[in-house]
Amino acid sequence: MSIDSPVKTPIPAAIPGTIPEDMPAELPTAAERVSVAFAGEGAGAGEMTWGQWEIWLSMCRQGWVRMGGVLPVSPGTTVQDVAEELGYIMSRYPSMRTLLRFDENGRPTQEIFGSGEIGLEVYDAADRSDPEETATAVKGRYMTAIRDFAGEWPLRMGVVRQGGALTHLVVITCHLASDGAGMGVLSREVQAKETAPVAGTQPLDLVRWQRSAAGDRQNAVALKNTETVMRSVPPRPLSDSSAPEQPRHWTGELTSPALRLAVQVISERTRAGSSTVLQALYAIALGRRGLMNPVVLRPLVSNRFRTGLANVVCNLVQSGIFVVDVAETTVDEAVARAKHAGRTSYKYSYFDPEQELALIERIAQEQGPDAVAWSPRSWSYLNDRRANENPVTLADEDITPARMKELVAASTFRWSEKKENPNEPLFLYIEESSDSISIIVSADTQCVPLADNEGLARDMEAIAVEAVFDPQAPTLVPAAPRS
Questions:
Q1: Which pTM does this prediction carry?
Q2: Which domains does the chain have, with CATH numbers?
């Protein structure tokens, strides 16, 4: 029996519904295309890294995943300046010179090239128009165009020109080439015009370690932990509605100043990182709404704390896995449980995703039809995108029930995306500004009704605010009935 098994073939990627909501209906055409030559070290061919496999299997479910956007350019910047920057990026980072190769069964491997050419596209914005609108349209073009993994470099770059002057830069990078932290390294080094050799273990060397005896040992202990987690809770898939919304996949976003302050209070009181507090709040909300408990969470882990990986421009993010039971306990105790389980999860979030998929399928075969729960339909992914998830020292703030009520009233909710193309059944993203935390719930409405999508975010806020003033605040999650 195979459950949600990805088809290991090139991804079509031109999927209806991926067009950003802020993109104009008409996509622009480039006025010119500048050919940029590059050459760099690290050429060769081999297997994909574990991080590449992680995002590849995700893209097999969702369509190709990308990063980037629109940036204003400094006055006086020329096309030649941008071309030189693009050549620098392509020459310096092996991951940007990588193409996939597919065998007869569609299984990918990678090839890193020592030299080549890439196009920089120039788009003209009409006089007296808003050039940012043109840049947004270019972004949409780059995000929705079919990606040729075997013939197209991971980076798409274009510039917008108006009246002869450049106004905006558009950069979209395929997630196979790097994760967000890696793009941060790239951005810093581009700005500094770094000339020292690239730092850390580069992709093909990383593959060699992952396929070594040491890598095999790491993979074995990680998969043993995954199997222990999977066998610790009974299969229980998310609900299956016969009437999902149209389009099917909705994303809601709650921006809450109250949650930011409440999380700081709970974090200091429990001596747990704010990310752990938010994971516990999310687990409680899932339990209160009857979506799952014990709660199976898959937090995205960067793995950059591992030796030689801190400053590598490649994808190192993998999904941890842990279970937390939040029934008939307090919020503070739920935080403690999440802290303990999460620490183990981060330790074992470095593994071969192909072998994890085989493990999931083997357990499914053993457990029978109900084991469909051990597909993504039985867990929630969680991505804390904040730069700093550690406890924050509280400022001099008058934390009273009246003040918290004011902050809750200042919270805002919006539906930020609606699309038909596939997504994970349930995915929570966490972002933060100077005065608010944003809880972004992306869900398949066949599995999570709209009321629960918004409700999960609002419940997290309400649970946190209650716990600010009551260290013994109950989770109000009933224990599962005995079988």
A1: 0.90
A2: 32-201 (3.30.559.10), 212-469 (3.30.559.30)
